[in-house]
Amino acid sequence: MSGQHPSIKEGWFTELSDEHFPGQGFSLQVEQVLHHSRSEFQDVLVFKSTNFGNVLVLDGIIQCAERDEFAYQEMISHVPLFAHGNPKNVLVIGGGDGGVIREVVKHDCVEKVTLVEIDKTVIDLSQQFLPSMACALNHPKVHINLCDGFQFLRDVALAAIDERYDVIITDSSDPEGPAEAFFQKEYFELLKAALNPGGIVIAQASENFWLNIDYLQGLMNIAHSVFQKANYCYTTVPTYTSGQLGLIICSDDSRLDLTRPQRHPSQQEQDILKYYNPEIHHASFILPTWADRLINGRNDGI
Ligand code: SAM
C-alpha cells in the first residue's frame, strides 16, 4: 500500500519534533514514495530520495538511508564487538532493517546472532527496498524472533530463555512508540542480567550533544547506576538531525577499557569496512570540552 505522507510536502520529506528539536527540521528531497502504511506498531514510510538512496522512516523519524547507513551500523556493531576479546553469542534488539546483522556476521568468532524485532513489516520492507542492509538476515548464524525486545529480556532474566550473551546491541527506534521502555533503568538492569561475564552492551541514545545534552546526561546517569563501566561515544550520520548520534556502551567488568579495541580487524576485515577502524574507535569517545564536562562530568579527556 502506498500513499502520501503527512511529513512530505511539495516533494520534500521533513523530520520535525517539537519535543526533541524545537525550531529546526531536517529535509530530504523525495523522488518517489515506495511504501506508506500503518503497521500494528507504527507508521512506516519508505521513499526513494534524490541524493541519499532509499530511506526508511518510522513514526516520522528517519531510521536509515542507503547512502550513509554504514556510519551507524558499523559503529554500533564494531565498537562493542572489537572491545570484546572473543564475542561468540550476540543479541540484537530492534534492527529489523538488517544493517547491524550484516556487520555482526563479519566477525568469524561470532557463532550465533539473535535478532529480536517487534515489527515484521520492517523486515519485509527492508528485504524489498533496502537489500544491501537486509542481505545477511538469512545467514545461517542468524536467528530471528518476532517479539518485544523488553519482554524477550524479561524472559531471559526469568530463565524462560536459557541463554546469556557476550554482546547485546540495542538498535532500536526512538523513545516515542514501541521502543519507549529501552530508555529506562529497568531495561539497563535486564541487559546486565542477560550478559555473560565480561559482556558488553551498546544502545543508540536517540540524541546527540547538539540536540539534547540534558537527556544524554540523564541516560548516562542511569547507565552508571546499573553498570560498573559506562561510556558515551558517537558517530556522524548526515541523515540524522544534527548529523550525529550518541551511543552508550556499558559493561560490568571494571577491567575493560571500552574506549579501545581489544582485537584489531585483520587486513581482510578492515578492507570490507567503510567507517570503523581502531583509531576512530577511540576517537569516537573524545568529546568537545563542554560536552565532556556535561556528559562525563569531567574536563580531563579520556
Ligand atoms: N538505525 C536506527 C536508528 O537509530 O534510528 C534504528 C533502526 S531499526 C529500523 C529500529 C527497529 O527497532 C525498528 O524496526 C522497530 O520496529 C524496532 N523496535 C522498536 N521497538 C521495539 C521493541 N519493543 N522490541 C523490538 N524491536 C523494536
UniProtKB/TrEMBL annotation:
Any one GO cellular component localisation term in the record: cytosol
One term of GO molecular function: spermidine synthase activity
UniProt keyword terms in alphabetical order: Polyamine biosynthesis, Transferase
Organism superkingdom: Eukaryota
Residue ranges constituting the PABS domain according to the UniProt record: 10-252
UniProt keyword Membrane, yes or no: no
InterPro entries referenced in this protein's UniProt entry, alphabetically: PABS, PABS_CS, SAM-dependent_MTases_sf, Spermi_synthase, Spermi_synthase_euk, Spermidine_synt_N, Spermidine_synt_N_sf
Stored Gene3D superfamilies: Spermidine synthase, tetramerisation domain, Vaccinia Virus protein VP39
Designated name of the protein: ZYRO0F14124p
Organism name: Zygosaccharomyces rouxii (strain ATCC 2623 / CBS 732 / NBRC 1130 / NCYC 568 / NRRL Y-229)
Lineage: Eukaryota, Fungi, Dikarya, Ascomycota, Saccharomycotina
